[in-house]
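User: New here, any thoughts?
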Amino acid sequence: MKIPPEIRSLIDSGCLAHLVTLNPNGSPQVTLVWIGLEGDELVAGHLPRNRKVRSIQRDLRVAISLQAETKSSMGLTEYAVLYGEARIQEGGAAELLQRLAEVYIGPGVKFPPMENPPPGYVTRIRVDRIEGVGPWTGRPVRGLDPCNESCWRSPQPR
């Protein structure tokens, strides 16, 4: 899917991303990552072949959550959850991390902070669906109707 301009702006702002992959037993594994865009793919770099890399090599399904610094008309923190499939590219992580460090740490930083970093791995995510609270959903945020008591009460046992 084409990444909407509002999501592009959110990513370009350097918001942190939570990458969710699946462990071998099906439980979620969550990690904080820096992300960027290459065309309509989300990209993240990893130097070692860590759990998230191994998980994606086994199961392509992923989700990424992004938290905005903006609030909805109801005062809710806006966020986006991007669902899709990932693939792992060998090599290119150090160059990608250097580019992302300029956004996440600041201009002129050297990252990774080592000589001759390993080639690492790049995660490339093709987004299939976007959810959350914000302009990227195309849906207004609706509040609860305080006059409708049924939305506030727990179901009664029968």
